[in-house]
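Table 4 source record.
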Amino acid sequence: SIAEARTYDVTLLLDVDVPWVPDLVRYLPDDRRGFFLRCQAALETAGRRTQVLRGSFETRIQAAIEAVEAMLTMPRVP
C-alpha cells in the first residue's frame, strides 16, 4: 500500500486524554480509545518508530519537540 511504502523517522501519535473537540476531520467521538489503540497497533505492526504524546496541549508540544530533537541527533541507518 502507499502508506507502507512511505518512510518516516518518527510518528507522533496523540493520545485521547484531552477533551473531545469536534471539527471537520475528527470522527468516532464515542470510540476514541479504540481508534487510538488500532492506530498504535498498526504502527507497531509496521515497525514504525512512534512517540505517543499525552497530557496538556503544552506538554504535548514540548514532548513533540523533544521527540523530533532526539530523532535529529540519532545516526541515520541506511
